[in-house]
Design brief:
Layout (H helix, E strand, L loop, with lengths): L13 H9 L1 H18 L5 H23 L4 H15 L1 H11 L4 H12 L10 E6 L4 E5 L3 H8 L6 H13 L5 E4 L11 E7 L12
Antiparallel strand pairs: 1-2, 2-4, 3-4
Helix pairs in contact: 1-2, 2-3, 3-4, 3-7, 4-8
């Protein structure tokens, strides 16, 4: 029996932002599919994992599945998702750029990076902290809740679209920080190698760019 739309939490960022991108007919299909996914998925106990499901994973999956059901090939459906995400997450990108103007952004990030990663609990992500010092902030993610969830629906390829959101958010975040990530689980790697560098520091083993 359906729980009713009023009882189903809906992302206030994703869905209002998606409507003008896809139009009314596709929007209604995505909402209907999201409700089906939510009702049948089964929510984890950890509140952070529930947040990720409601705000990103299940809405993104519903959008992708609707595109595929409507005849889009995998490559073109993923391209449409990527373009939509550029718009849907543009406020995040703008906020990080504003923060990145601070000249002391790297020391600030170094101090609070572990706190900033609390929404990614060990129940969903296995994080190995490798380095947090004046030269670099480096950590590897050995598992990913997004990838694991999408894999359940045979849509692991969708994970890369969320990897792209990280690239958009951090790639041009600040003139004082260089963002580098060479591999991700969502793009076929065994792990995700996160790295933030102050602009005066070069990542070990990497050639200077520019």
């Amino acid at each position: 029996m359906s729980t009713g739309s009023k009882e189903i939490p809906m992302s206030k960022r994703f869905f209002p932002g998606l409507l003008p991108i896809v139009g009314d007919a596709t929007y209604k299909q995505v909402v209907a599919r999201y409700r089906e996914l939510f009702e049948n998925h089964g929510l984890p106990k950890h509140p952070a994992l529930r947040w990720h499901l409601i705000e990103g994973i299940l809405p993104g999956l519903a959008f992708y599945q609707v595109l595929r059901a409507n005849g889009e090939a995998q490559e073109s459906a993923l391209a449409l998702v990527d373009r939509a995400f550029e718009i849907l997450f543009s406020n995040n990108v703008a906020r990080m750029k504003k923060l990145g103007r601070l000249s002391f952004i790297y020391p600030f990030l170094r101090m609070y990076i572990r706190t900033a990663m609390r929404p990614y609990p060990p129940e969903g992500w296995k994080i190995d902290w490798l380095q947090i010092d004046k030269n670099a902030i480096r950590f590897d993610m050995k598992s990913c809740f997004y990838f694991d969830t999408f894999s359940r629906y045979r849509a692991s390829e969708l994970t890369a679209s969320f990897c792209q959101v990280d690239d958009l958010t951090y790639g041009a975040m600040s003139p004082h920080i260089r963002w580098q990530r060479l591999v991700t689980i969502g793009r076929g790697g065994t792990h995700c190698d996160f790295c933030f560098l102050p602009v005066t520091t070069q990542r070990p083993g990497q050639r200077s760019q520019g």
